[in-house]
Amino acid sequence: MCIEQTKTSHLDQDTTVEYHIEYASNPSVPSVGAVSEKPDIDPVAVKSFQRECSDFSYLVKYLETGELPEDQKVAKKVVVEAEQYVCLDGTLYHLFYRRAKNLSQADRVIKQLAVPKVLRPDVLLSYHDSIAGGGHQGFDRTYHSIRLKYYWPRMYSDIYDYVKSCDACQRAKRHFHGHPAPLHPMPVEDAFKRWHMDILGPLTTSSDGHKYVLLVTDSFTRWPEAFPLKSQEATVIAQVLYKEIFCRYGAPHTLISDRGKNFMSKLIQALCELFDIPVTILVPITHRLIRHVRGLTQLLHNP
Question: What is the pTM (predicted TM-score) of this model?
Answer without folding.
Answer: 0.48
